[in-house]
Amino acid sequence: MKLARAARDATFRLFMTVRAIWAPTAMGVAGAVIDDQGRILLVRHRYNPGWRLPGGGVNRGEPPRDAVLRELREEVGLSGGHAEFFGLYVRKAGWATAVIAVYRIHGAQVNFRPNLEIKEICHAAAGTVPEGCTPAARKRLMELAGQALSPYW
Questions:
Q1: Each residue of 28-66: b (16+ CB within 10 Å) or e?
Q2: Is the per-residue pLDDT at 19 higher than 60?
Q3: Quick one: pLDDT band at residue 25, thresholds 50, 70, 90?
Q4: Residue 2 lies in a domain
Q5: How many domains does the chain have?
Q6: Whole-number Å distance between alpha carbons of 109 and 127
Q7: Residue 4: what pLDDT?
């Protein structure tokens, strides 16, 4: 009995390892920081063109809500506030699948200083799209204004 269970468990672990190599998944987060005027914070990276929602990767074992607050502290000097889950999105990233959790952030303060990752920020009203916005940011701004959510980033 114990030997059969051990063999079954080992087979399952092997299967999961092969699956992770064959079809890996990466988890990311993005935050729609909403200011007291209802505008949404967008960032411009030093290494990627276009305005986009701030965010980044989720560390192994890290809850996505904690990850988005951590990323925004690091990128734009976020303090305070609370994160409310907004939507879950997918996109292809090479042979991997990227899953991105988006959170609305209310009641936060931003103390932005240009850094190695983010060179500038702007604020946009939900439903308005600044020139140079990435397609994903454009979709999220419209969804935050009430347009139906798409599952795709």
A1: bbbbbbbeeeeebbbbbeeeeebbbbbbbebeeeeebbe
A2: no
A3: confident
A4: no
A5: 1
A6: 22
A7: 73
